[in-house]
Every structure is written in C-alpha cells, then in structure tokens.
Write a structure and sequence with these properties.
This protein has one domain. Helix 1 runs antiparallel to helix 9 and helix 3 crosses helix 8. It is about 75% helix and about 0% strand. It has about 290 residues and is mostly helical. It has 12 helices and no strands. The two termini are about 25 Å apart.
Length: about 290
C-alpha cells in the first residue's frame, strides 16, 4: 500500500467506528434487559447530540446548521431513529450476532426500494445479491433457531428503515457531512424529548447505570464522527467491504458478555448475508469504474 493511499488513514477510522457501533449495540442490549426501551434510545441520541454539535461547529463554523434540504434531513433522521428503536427492541429478545447480521440486509433492501423511490433499474447482479440476502435470512430464521422469534420482525423493520436512511442520504446533495451528522443527532433528540411524557421512563437506576447510559451516547457520537470522517478521506466503494468487520465484534461481544455463540447453520446464514453484501459492493465498484 502506498504511503499516501487514502486507506492508510481511513481504514483505522472504519475499524474503530465499527468497534464503537458494536460496543454501542452490546451496551444497549445490556441496558434494555432492565430499563425502558424509550429511555435507552433517548440516551443514545441525547449523548450523540452532545458530541456531534461541537464537532459540527468546529468543522463548519457558525453556519454549521444551515442546510438546503431541511425536510430531507428531518425525514432521513427519523428513519434512523426508527431503525434504532426497532434494532434495540429486537435485541431484547434475540442474540447480538444474529441480530446484527439481519440489519446488514439494509443494502439489499436499498436495492429493492431504489426501484420505486429513485426509479432505478436493478442489474442482474443486484437482483442476485437481493436473492442471496433473503436466502441468508431464511437460513438464519429457520424454525427451532434462537432467531425464530416474533422480535425478528423488528430487526427486519430496522433493516428497511436503515435502507430508507441510506437512500435519503443519496438524495441529499450539497450538505456537508458535519451538517448531516448534526441533524441526525438533533432530530432524534428533539423528537424523543417531545415524546418523553407519553412513555414510562421512571425506572430506578444506579449511578453506575446512569454512566452506562451516558457512555451509550458517547459511543454513538464518536462512532458516527469517525465513520463520516473516514468516508471523506476515501471513497465509499473502497471502504464498504470493511464495514462487515463489525460482525466479528458483534459475535465476540455476544459470546463473552451474553454467553451466546451462533450454531453452525446460523453461521452459514450470516455468511450468506455478508457474502451477498460484499458481492453487491464489488459489483457497484465495477460499475463505477466502467
């Protein structure tokens, strides 16, 4: 690898961001066992807002909040809030590794949703990746497995919401990454704070658990900050395959913290999902070069 190759600086950020996201997921799974889902999701966005706002201000100056697409920014951020709530809710009942694998179907759903929303015509390779992803889900959600649970619907919902989030990001030109990072945290925090009176959040928790809740937001803010920075250094087509390393962290956390290791068939299903995603990334890189 050449000394000045963008991967040299971007890859460590991608790996560290993936570790932050997996740590965030594991922390959320730990918290939602004894605390309201709404409180955990709120803490995740409120903490991210505290981290993202000064970062955006530092990079963009006093006008860091200005956007040319306020409605798209709000809609995009609401999709991510929905994805987060569905994912955390599903993790209350399902293993971490398998749950994370299901959400990696988001690029596949994005291919399918791009037909009505972006009026794109998927290529044969995109259809193949979509069918491969669904085959992986069928293997993973087989009757008798730990993932064969009604809560798996929440994780599929998280993948669809994440796909919409990705599509809306593509429809959001001209806004700086730090502005988008700011709105992602702001909208989530504002909406969830407004909904606070309608949810049960008065569960008792210790100072240690309060620190864990704060840690949740710190992980989200730092993780998204590093992720966005990495994608400003190197092209997305170059970095996308390395985001799947997050599955390794999810499997390790699932085993060492929650004592769960996917069985062989589950590993096959997870492998099929990851392979479908990687194949899609490789195809998109070839199309971009052509």
């Amino acid at each position: 690898m050449q000394q000045d190759h963008p991967l040299r600086r971007a890859l460590p950020l991608v790996f560290l961001a993936g570790m932050c996201f997996s740590t965030l997921d594991a922390t959320a799974k730990y918290l939602i066992q004894d605390h309201p889902l709404f409180l955990v999701v709120w803490a995740r966005y409120a903490g991210q807002a505290l981290i993202a706002t000064p970062i955006a201000w530092h990079r963009g100056g006093h006008g860091f909040w200005r956007t040319r697409h306020p409605r798209l920014q709000v809609l995009r951020s609401l999709c991510l809030v929905t994805a987060t709530a569905c994912f955390f809710g599903g993790l209350r009942y399902l293993p971490l590794a398998e749950g994370s694998a299901i959400t990696f179907l988001a690029p596949v759903f994005a291919v399918l949703l791009s037909i009505p929303l972006l009026h794109e015509r998927p290529t044969h390779a995109r259809w193949l990746a979509a069918f491969g992803g669904f085959a992986g889900i069928v293997i993973l959600l087989r009757p008798g497995s730990d993932v064969f649970h009604p809560a798996a619907v929440l994780l599929l919902g998280a993948a669809v919401a994440n796909a919409l989030y990705q599509i809306l990001t593509r429809m959001l030109p001209n806004d700086a990454p730090h502005t988008t990072l700011f709105y992602t945290a702001l909208v989530g925090t504002a909406v969830l704070t407004a909904l606070w009176p309608f949810f049960e959040t008065n569960a008792a928790f210790t100072w240690r658990e309060a620190l864990v809740l704060a840690f949740l937001g710190l992980l989200a803010g730092v993780g998204h900050g590093m992720f966005i920075t990495a994608f400003t250094i190197a092209p997305a087509s170059l970095l996308a395959p390395f985001t799947y390393v997050q599955m390794i962290w999810a499997t390790l956390y699932g085993y060492f913290i929650f004592g769960h290791l996917p069985d062989r068939i589950s590993f096959v299903g997870m492998g099929v999902i990851v392979a479908s995603g990687l194949g899609l990334v490789w195809h998109e890189r070839r199309r971009a070069r052509a």
